[in-house]
Automatic annotation (TrEMBL):
<keyword id="KW-0813">Transport</keyword>
<dbReference type="Pfam" id="PF07715">
    <property type="entry name" value="Plug"/>
</dbReference>
<dbReference type="GO" id="GO:0009279">
    <property type="term" value="C:cell outer membrane"/>
</dbReference>
<keyword id="KW-0614">Plasmid</keyword>
<keyword id="KW-0812">Transmembrane</keyword>
<dbReference type="InterPro" id="IPR000531">
    <property type="entry name" value="Beta-barrel_TonB"/>
</dbReference>
<dbReference type="GO" id="GO:0015344">
    <property type="term" value="F:siderophore uptake transmembrane transporter activity"/>
</dbReference>
<keyword id="KW-0798">TonB box</keyword>
<keyword id="KW-0675">Receptor</keyword>
<dbReference type="InterPro" id="IPR036942">
    <property type="entry name" value="Beta-barrel_TonB_sf"/>
</dbReference>
<dbReference type="InterPro" id="IPR010105">
    <property type="entry name" value="TonB_sidphr_rcpt"/>
</dbReference>
<dbReference type="GO" id="GO:0038023">
    <property type="term" value="F:signaling receptor activity"/>
</dbReference>
<keyword id="KW-1134">Transmembrane beta strand</keyword>
<protein>
    <submittedName>
        <fullName>TonB-dependent siderophore receptor</fullName>
    </submittedName>
</protein>
<keyword id="KW-0408">Iron</keyword>
<comment type="similarity">
    <text>Belongs to the TonB-dependent receptor family.</text>
</comment>
<dbReference type="InterPro" id="IPR037066">
    <property type="entry name" value="Plug_dom_sf"/>
</dbReference>
Length: 729
């Protein structure tokens, strides 16, 4: 089958495919029978065979099980505007496909991040948002959805994910981003191959989740996809209930000329408490210890809650120009999100051991984001072959909310916080402020791939971005309004990369890129800090092994950032700067039929560069010097085997020791987690049932995932047994 750049067939191609699909049904049984006895030989054109040409021999057709295509992990929407194949892009890009999420039973994105080199989880505002660290740098609004930078106060539902891509280092034609890299989520799109999927999942801590996914053609020109899920799950943490609903219909049209339009909508409703986790207590001098209590212990009140709802709309348009070598593309995206929350913060520990806590929260938090892009892509000859992508992007984000703080309440202890009952005094706050933040950025970009030699490609990119921001904080219990604003700031970011295909299966690459990111006003004040600026040097190699069954990426990097602003216990602090140097190695692929493997190891030497001597040279919060992971699965695919349809998988992740704050007053320790799972496919006519069972944290390791400050230490989940059943038809 033939596909255009968007993965959609043109109608002329769809005609033959659609007709072939109908006629092919009558041959399905015959092909299946032939597959059981060995290779399939297509008779093809009789004249061709009488002319002495060899018949076309296909690999043995396997029936049932997981199609190997669903493990494909070499495509990206971000990091290379001119190519989606990561083997051709002169930078490090890691990809996890949807199938791996299913095999690992990943219920949240945070379960996936740890399988990438030099990527670890972060605090995530009490576990309510996506939050991670790449190559020593914490993200700031660097969750991308189909190539659109998106701030969100909610979690990403895994039901919508087609693949997860982590692009390492700055992407200068994107503009604003953390220099460590970014995460891009590719959502599921319509397919002209009909497929329906129903799934139910449970676990030993009270997970109850179901989802459906239906896609296929509506006609020769239209295809649809509808994805939905519902969840009502308990957690190993006390008084923690997660409830969420998700619904996402998408419609695609492809015209006779190759033009295409895809329109999508997403709705999500997510309810879960904001959980600050454990706290620390004084251990002598400036040092502190993390509370040694049960993993279920919460320092929050049972009335804590957080509700978040969003509506997203997206339109993608692609129009071929006067020749097939050029395409005009447009994208529009809008997100409206509403969040309300109430939670408890530990403020201090008195000398008599009693806790000082207070109720806090945010009401009527409305977040609106609009994004637009218009670009053209094509190729031409200018002494040398050139591929070019250029266009302009516009993004505006407005957020308003009411923040309130209750009076301090004294009671409970570190070891027994529930010995004193907190009361909800949010109706009588000691402080209540109305806040509004606006940010706008826009600018042109360009990227070019120049073929210097048949084996050498030079990639150049740049973006000239204009950005501005403003904030308004109004005291609702007294008088006074504070405002702050950034005048229009102009920044030119640029990149250069070289990809050299030294041998048929071995390429070497090098790149330089820089970036910037304006300070935001989300820390409760209107301080104006200079924009953070960063740059990266990277060299590496990409190697195809075993006839492209394995793909290896190795790299060395040096990243530096200035004007770093961190939130320390909710207060904005200009730490000065940061530098990270390190190395990465990852291997992905299927060495043999049915065997899939992912292995990675990362090392990073990250240091703060600050005028504050107490933290200068310290490792940044939550950053380990090393992490490593291995996931391997095997699925029996030989129809003659009595185990056909059975799949087995196991994974190990290791995260080194981390510090819980920039002052290094306490440590989070290192940890190693072991997961194991099994699945079994049962054919029922043309349908296929899959049964899943497994264990996460097999050794029941006690560990801490991240720190948000002295009284905000996230707790890792204990041993969890899970099960699931799904139906494909």
């Amino acid at each position: 089958m033939m596909w255009n750049e968007k993965g959609l067939m043109r109608p002329s191609e769809a005609d033959s495919a659609w007709g072939g699909l109908k006629s092919g049904v009558s041959h399905a049984v015959l092909l299946w029978a032939l597959a059981l006895t060995g290779p399939v030989v297509l008779a093809g054109d009789a004249a061709a065979q009488t002319d002495g040409e060899a018949p076309v021999v296909l690999d043995t057709l396997m029936v049932g099980g997981t199609p190997q295509a669903r493990y494909d992990s070499r495509k990206t929407d971000v990091g290379g505007r001119l190519s989606s194949d990561i083997t051709e892009i002169p930078r490090t890009i890691d990809v996890v496909p949807e199938q791996l999420l299913q095999d690992q039973h990943a219920r949240e994105m945070e379960e996936v991040y740890r399988y990438f080199p030099n990527v670890v989880n972060n605090d995530g505002y009490g576990g309510t948002r996506e939050d991670y660290i790449i190559r020593g740098f914490r993200r700031r609004d660097d969750v991308y959805r189909n190539g659109v930078r998106l701030k969100s106060n909610s979690r990403i539902d895994p039901s919508t994910i087609e693949s997860i891509q982590i692009i390492k280092g700055p992407v200068s034609d994107i503009g604003q981003m953390t220099p460590g890299g970014l995460v891009n989520i590719t959502t599921k799109k319509p397919s002209w191959t009909a497929r329906n999927h129903l799934e139910v999942n449970v676990d030993s801590h009270g997970e109850r989740q179901t989802m459906f996914d239906s896609t296929g053609p509506l006609s020769e020109n239209f295809a649809y996809r509808i994805v939905g899920s519902a969840e009502s799950s308990n957690s190993f943490r006390d008084d923690t209930l997660v409830q969420r609903q998700f619904f996402a219909p998408t419609l695609s049209w492809v015209g006779a000329s190759g033009a295409s339009v895809t329109v999508g909508y997403e709705f999500s409703k997510d309810k879960r408490p904001l959980d600050r986790g454990f706290i620390t207590y004084p251990a002598g001098g400036s040092l502190r210890n993390v509370a040694d209590v049960s993993r279920s212990t919460r320092y929050d009140a049972n009335f804590s809650k957080r509700d978040s709802t969003y509506h997203q709309g997206e339109v993608d348009i692609s129009i071929p120009l006067h020749s097939d070598k050029w395409t005009l593309e447009g994208k529009l995206f809008y997100n409206h999100e509403r969040t309300d929350e109430i939670h408890t913060e530990v403020r201090s520990i008195q000398s008599n051991g009693l806790l000082v806590r207070r109720v806090e929260g945010n009401d009527d938090r409305n977040l609106d984001t609009f994004f637009g892009r218009l670009q053209t892509r094509g190729e031409f000859e200018a002494l040398l072959p050139v591929k070019l992508a250029t266009g302009i992007e516009y993004r505006t984000q407005k957020e308003s909310w009411i923040n309130y703080v209750g009076a301090d309440q004294v009671g409970g202890t570190v070891s027994n916080p529930a010995s004193w009952r907190l009361t909800d005094n949010s109706a009588r706050p000691t402080a209540r402020t109305a806040r509004r933040v606006e940010q706008t950025d826009f600018g042109p970009f360009i990227q070019a791939d120049i073929s210097l030699l048949p084996t050498v490609t030079l990639t150049l990119g740049a973006r000239y971005e204009l950005s501005k921001g403003s904030a308004r904080v109004e005291n609702l219990l007294g008088r006074g309004t504070t405002v702050g604003s950034y005048p229009v700031d102009r920044n030119l970011t640029k990149t250069a990369g070289v990809m050299w295909k030294a041998f048929e299966d071995v390429s070497f690459f090098a790149n330089y890129a820089d970036t910037f990111q304006p300070h935001n006003f989300y820390n409760g004040d209107t301080q104006v800090f200079p924009a953070e600026k960063g740059r990266q040097y990277e060299v590496g190699s990409k190697v195809n092994l075993m006839g492209e069954r394995l793909f290896m990426t190795a790299s060395l990097f040096d990243i530096k950032q200035s004007n770093v602003v961190e939130s320390v216990n909710g207060v904005a602090v200009l730490t000065g700067g940061q530098r990270s140097r390190g190395a990465e190695l990852s291997v992905v692929g299927n060495p043999a039929e049915g065997w899939n493997i992912r292995a990675a190891v990362g090392y990073v030497d990250a240091k703060l560069e600050s005028a504050d001597r107490s933290i200068d040279g310290n490792r940044p919060t939550n950053v380990p010097t090393h992490n490593a992971s291995l996931w391997s699965s095997y699925e029996f695919k030989d129809p003659s085997s009595p185990l056909v349809g059975l799949g087995l998988g196991a994974g190990v992740t290791l995260v080194g020791n981390r510090y819980g704050d920039a002052q290094h007053t306490f440590e989070l320790g290192s940890y190693t987690l072991v997961d194991a799972g099994a699945w079994y496919y049962i054919p029922v006519g043309e349908k296929k049932i899959r049964l899943d069972v497994g264990v996460k944290n097999l050794t029941d390791k006690s560990y801490l995932t991240a720190s948000g400050g002295t009284y905000r230490v996230s707790v890792g989940a204990p041993r969890t047994v899970y099960g699931g059943i799904s139906l494909d038809f």
